[in-house]
Structure formats: structure tokens, C-alpha cells
Write a structure and sequence with these properties.
4 domains, binds FE3-S4 cluster, Transcription Regulator spoIIAA, Rossmann fold, 7-stranded mixed beta sheet, binds S-adenosyl-L-homocysteine, binds iron/sulfur cluster, single chain
């Protein structure tokens, strides 16, 4: 099972003198933010994939689980040695751990030059300017009340990319009791739809054919934007202006999934048949303690509605095992829900206590050993169900977008977000082609080009 946490996702090269290396942990929003930082600093730095030749290293951090936070500390330990051999090297910590710890990061790692929170990223060149003038240990973790991404042409992170993310809102107001995101990303703020459309246009002009709209809870998009569209309205606008760009979004909260949005899957030609709809648990008692504000029955009804509206839709989810107070019976209910919902793929996590959240203070924390046993059982269960779902594609012909080429192999994606491996020439990258699915594996399909 793949984890949502992607590691060491490095942005790649171009020219200029001083060199910048960005290391990104965490979710797609962090990937997007790293691209933005690179863009803001483009005139002053060129990106390098080699950490040891960098003049500036930025670590864009994630705080979602304890493990993610620990990755930062072990990385910082290694970077400390680089700084010892190159004293002019600047090291910055950005993202969610930066927001969580602020100035406290300097006492843990005094060789860090600056700490910058996710909503202060757009001020990064100012911080570097101050460092150049001799100021030390700068920290900016201000949370803003406005959407802070300036609308400028979006350069591609890598030449030849065909997929891109566009952040449409920041923050989260849901306060699920296990989750640190509302504390480190602040309140929900939607981005004006004009800016989003301008960015999609810029990306389309540069060859992007598949766009994923990002937010922690995209269904509540539009709150606070007087006279602008809501989320379904935003999808409709993008679909009408860019009918040829594949459109996706993540993440939706089940409590806010409206019939109008479900309807979009049957109606909008560019909207791909894939929905990531995190359920977290199949036990109503645990869902309540998590403050998710829906029941397992409501969730399953939505899954059914989605499949009725769009029979081919891929439904993926997130699950947490070992939330405080979770009994064997609660866990069995999660297995039962997974069986009934027939997820195509799921990301499963052991509950990790996060500072400042409500769940960390709950008395009945689950033993680590029990969490591990439940996770193993759940992963096995998910693998079996996922493979069955993938097997349904064997013998079908699907339209795929070719995303990349390596060693005479192409990697492509279906509208339903299944990865398809095919043999074929490089010049098909960026093209839509038809493939015959020969075989299903656990997390991918093997296809052959149909001429
Ligand atoms: N906004 C998204 C989720 C963002 S975090 C949503 O609500 O769907 C991605 C996933 O990490 C969550 O869906 C949850 O399954 C998991 N997660 C969040 N906090 C966690 C914690 N403290 N321990 C374990 N998993 C957690
Ligand atoms: Fe976290 Fe819940 Fe917000 Fe998702 S909706 S980011 S899980 S608080
Ligand atoms: Fe991690 Fe922050 Fe994303 S905590 S999952 S990088 S919003």
C-alpha cells in the first residue's frame, strides 16, 4: 500500500548561478507550494537536483503523523554536516512543521537560517534579502486572512510534465479530532475563480493536459467569496473553458458532498471518473469521536449514488486504525465498510497522536501492537479487494493519457486514475491513446496500444 506521504520529491534543473535544492515531504499542497517557491526565486536561483551543490536548501515539511515530523529531524542532522563544510549555505524549513514549531525549531537545529509557514511562503524573497543583509534566524509563521498565492504564469516544474496541481483553497475549518492540519494551515480561504482559471490557462498553454484542483475540503470552496461560484460552479466554468483538459480534484469531505457535485460526474465531459472520499472508519461511534459528522450508512449511500450516476467511477479512500477507543468490534465495522464500498484503492494509516489536537488528550489510546496488527489485517484485506477491482479492466479498451517515458516503456493514466504501463515510443508522451488492458496488477494495469 502506498502512503500519501511522498518523499524527497525534488524539483529539477535550469540555469542561473546560485543553486537551490528543494526537498518536499507531505501532500500535493506541499508539492504545489514548493513549485511556487521555486517560481518566486527563479530570477535569483536555478534549481539543482544535487543537495551537495546547493547554496540554498529548502525543506518543505509535513506534520500529519509523527513519522513525517521525524523525517525532518533526521534530514536536518545530515544537512548540518553539509553546512559545516560550506558555511555560506543557507537552510530553510518551510511548511507544516515550520508552522507547528516556529522559533522552537532554532533551539533544536541552530544551524537553520529561516523558518517559514505555508501561508507566509510568498514572502520568501524578502526573508532571503534580510539574511543577505546579515540578519539571522528569521521566522515568519503569520497566518493570513487572504488567499496568498499571487496569480502569475505558472512555470512547469519539469519539462515534459503533462499533469499539474492547482491550489484552489487553503486551510481547513473541520477540526477532525485527530488532525493537525487546521492548526498548521489555518482557516479555510478560497481563491478567486478568475485566478484559478488564469492559472489553468497558463498551464494548458504550457502543455498540461491533466489538472488536479487542490484543497483540504474542496466541497466548501467559495465560502467567503462574495458573488463568486461554489465548487460545482467552479468545475462547470473550468469544464466549459477547457473541455480538453482532464479535470480532477482532491480532497472531498463526505459530509459536504452535495447531489449537485455527484451530478457533475455524469454531466461534465472533462471531469475524470475518480473521487477520493476519505471515510476514516466504518464505526459510527469512532466517526463521532473523530468529529467527522457523517455515519457509515450515509457514506455508503453516497458511494451508491456515485456509482448510479457514473458506473465506472473509481472511488478511493483514507482509513485510520487504532483511533483512541477503537475496539475490535469497531475495527470489524471498518472491514465491513471496506468490503461493501469496494474501494479501488485506499491509504491506510495507524492513528498518530498529534500535539494540540483533541484526540491526543483522549484517555483510551490504543496499544501500538494492536494498531500494527489491525493495519496489517486491513492492508491485506484492501489488497484483495483492490486487485478484484483492477481485474475488472482486463480485456477492456481504455483511453489513457501518456505521462512519461523511460527505457522504451510508457506510463499512462486512465480517466479513473489507474496507472497503465505500456511499451511504446517516447513521442506519445502528452497524447491520448487507446490501450487494450492485458493484465491487472495490485496498483497498476499492463496494456498494449490499439492501432
Ligand atoms: N483533508 C483531507 C485529509 C488530509 S490528511 C480529508 O479530510 O480528507 C490525509 C489523511 O491523513 C487523512 O485522510 C487521514 O486518513 C490521515 N491522517 C490525518 N491525521 C492523522 C493522524 N493523526 N494519524 C493518522 N492518520 C492521520
Ligand atoms: Fe484534517 Fe479533517 Fe481538515 Fe481533512 S477535513 S484536513 S482530516 S481536519
Ligand atoms: Fe502534511 Fe501539511 Fe499536507 S501536515 S499532509 S503537508 S497539509
Amino acid at each position: 500500500m502506498k502512503s500519501l506521504v511522498r518523499q524527497n520529491d525534488q524539483l529539477i534543473v535550469n540555469k542561473a548561478q546560485r543553486k537551490l535544492h528543494i526537498i518536499t515531504f507531505g501532500c500535493q499542497m506541499n508539492e504545489y507550494d514548493s513549485r511556487r517557491m521555486a517560481q518566486i526565486l527563479m530570477g535569483q536561483y536555478s534549481l539543482t537536483p544535487h543537495v551537495d551543490e546547493a547554496d540554498l536548501i529548502i525543506i518543505n515539511t509535513c506534520s500529519i503523523r509523527e513519522k513525517a515530523e521525524h523525517k525532518l529531524y533526521s534530514l536536518l542532522g545530515r544537512l548540518r554536516r553539509l553546512k559545516a563544510t560550506n558555511p555560506s549555505l543557507k537552510i530553510g524549513v518551510a511548511g507544516c512543521v515550520a508552522q507547528q514549531l516556529g522559533n522552537r525549531l532554532f533551539s533544536r537545529a541552530p544551524y537553520v537560517d529561516f523558518v517559514i509557514g505555508p501561508q507566509a511562503l510568498y514572502k520568501i524573497d524578502g526573508i532571503l534579502g534580510k539574511l543577505a543583509h546579515g540578519e539571522i534566524r528569521l521566522c515568519d509563521i503569520e497566518l493570513s486572512r487572504r488567499f496568498q498565492i499571487p496569480c502569475i504564469d505558472a512555470p512547469l516544474p519539469k519539462k515534459g510534465d503533462v499533469r499539474a496541481y492547482v491550489t484552489i483553497m487553503q486551510g481547513c475549518d473541520n477540526f477532525c479530532t485527530y488532525c493537525i492540519v487546521p492548526f498548521v494551515r489555518g482557516r479555510e480561504i478560497s481563491r478567486p475563480s478568475e485566478d484559478i482559471l488564469a492559472e489553468v490557462e497558463s498551464l494548458a498553454r504550457q502543455g498540461i493536459r491533466d489538472v488536479t484542483l487542490l484543497g483540504q475540503n474542496v466541497n466548501s470552496y467559495g465560502k467567503g467569496l462574495e458573488g463568486d461560484v461554489d465548487f460545482s460552479g467552479l468545475l462547470e466554468r473550468i469544464d466549459s473553458v477547457f473541455p480538453d483538459v482532464r479535470l480532477r480534484f482532491t480532497t472531498s469531505h463526505p459530509k459536504d458532498l452535495s447531489d449537485r457535485l455527484i451530478d457533475c460526474f455524469g454531466r461534465l465531459g472533462s471531469l475524470c471518473e475518480h473521487l477520493h472520499l476519505p471515510v476514516q472508519s466504518g464505526s459510527d461511534r469512532i466517526l463521532k469521536r473523530m468529529n467527522r459528522r457523517y455515519t457509515s450508512q450515509h457514506y455508503l449511500e453516497m458511494v451508491e449514488k456515485l456509482r448510479r450516476t457514473c458506473p465506472d467511477i473509481t472511488i478511493t479512500t483514507d482509513l485510520i486504525v487504532g483511533f483512541p477507543g477503537e475496539t475490535d468490534e469497531d475495527f470489524e465495522q471498518t472491514l465491513a465498510l471496506v468490503k461493501e464500498a469496494k474501494f479501488d484503492q485506499a491509504f491506510a494509516f495507524k492513528y498518530s497522536p498529534r500535539p494540540g489536537t483533541a484526540a491526543v488528550k483522549m484517555k483510551d489510546q490504543v496499544d501500538e501492537k494492536v494498531k500494527s496488527q489491525r493495519l496489517t489485517r486491513l492492508l491485506n484485506f484492501l489488497n484483495d479487494i483492490g486487485l478484484k477491482q483492477y481485474k475488472k479492466f482486463e480485456g477492456r479498451t481504455c483511453q489513457v493519457l501518456v505521462e512519461s517515458y523511460s527505457d522504451s516503456k510508457l506510463t499512462a493514466r486512465t480517466r479513473g486514475n489507474h496507472v497503465v504501463n505500456i511499451e511504446g515510443p517516447k513521442d506519445l508522451v502528452g497524447r491520448l491513446i487507446n490501450v487494450y488492458i492485458e493484465r491487472a496488477c495490485h496498483h497498476s494495469l499492463i496494456g498494449r496500444i490499439v492501432h
